From TrEMBL:
Keyword terms: Amino-acid transport, Cell membrane, Membrane, Transmembrane, Transmembrane helix, Transport
Top-level lineage group: Eukaryota
Residue intervals passing through the bilayer: 53-72, 79-100, 173-190, 196-217, 283-305, 325-347, 368-388, 394-413, 425-445
Domain Amino acid transporter transmembrane residue range list: 50-445
Membrane topology: Multi-pass membrane protein
Keyword Ribonucleoprotein tagged: no
Protein name in the entry: Amino acid transporter transmembrane domain-containing protein
Amino acid sequence: MEIQQLRDHSPDKFASIALAPKGRTDAQEGNWRAQEKAIDDWLPINARRNAKWWYSAFHNVTAMVGAGVLSLPYAMSELGWEAGVAVLILSWIITLYTLWQMVEMHEMVPGKRFDRYHELGQHAFGEKLGLWIVVPQQLVVEVGLNIVYMVTGGQSLQKFHDVVCHDCKHIKLTYFIMIFASAHFVLSQLPNFHSISGVSLAAAVMSLCYSTIAWIASASKGRSADVDYRLRATTTPGKVFGFFGALGDVAFAYAGHNVVLEIQATIPSTPDKPSKKPMWKGVIVAYIVVAVCYFPASLVGYWAFGNKVDDNILVTLNKPKWLIALANMMVVVHLLGSYQIYAMPVFDMIETVLVRKFWFTPGLMLRLIARTAYVAFTMFIAITFPFFNELLSFFGGFAFAPTTYFLPCIMWLTVYKPKRFSLSWFTNWACIVIGVLLMILSPIGGLRQIILKIKTYKFYQDYPRND
């Protein structure tokens, strides 16, 4: 959609009118609002509002069930049975609760919808402070996920190649990341959430399939003869840092909060039928699928391999070859959709800044250049730092815990102001404490693991073949 500049006002004139609303004439006000509406209708988040509840379901499944499920058996090996099971269950309950709060807050102000996470933050914390609190953390999550998905997509393609053609010449991980990225140079040009629905649906189906394959293949293989359920690390510092890093892995697995408002923005809403009803219905379905994917994969994978499990369960599995190859291709398809789900809010931010602040003309050329540059950036970082589990641990605590565990609770306390010492008050403060602990502890473990990897591998040096 190409938006033409209105003839009566140059971009500078529109800027001056926007900054001095009291000085606008009626004609200027009308022209300005027409221009603003045209831009809103062009931006990815606001473009279409005709989604049904099942769109919410598969978009949320695609957003949550991604690379994180493959690392959960590894996280179990650093947590142990008791702590591992407790952390998995508690995280599922807490994140479902905080996600419900965000769905409720989407239309907390009558006649207004908070279509973006930062808009809700601005309402809760103030126009400027809300941006500084929410946007940096949300960008770290979404950009970090896109980088990790680049790495994981490349690893899955490499694993597929090695399983199908074991005797073929080894190809570096770098090239597989570039192959995976090449698909996103095309997919990133899809304009909005509605246009990626087909990709997202395929990704949601694939996530259920490959996580099921992972735990069924582990169960079929049976428990290893020398299986060891002691913690992976042998030293006390190693156990402590490994425990912290595993918390980040689990936090990484529940990242859907960062795009939930943007997904809900695609659902129509009226006073009689608010968007929160179909959205919540879709979220419930999505969380059932999440439980079906996460719990069997993590528990059965750890049961079968113990502390010898790799940071990607599909890397540990080698037989039957055709099934493992198929599962890895399913991961690739899923990550194609997951990358786009998390990239869409970033595209929205980039295009909003370019159009509203720098006065670029909205259109195909703007999207082509901006989105291509973003995909190239995430590909470059993925090639430079091809660390899978270490990235999960670091990003999982540093930004995933705030946006998933305690920011929704703080906004709920700020906006709804539940009665002090009520159940809602205690529950939200408990979630805040847990989220703060995750934010502090898990990056320590993840950063330590990244440092160890850097000491072991030189930059641009590829992993061994069995990685």
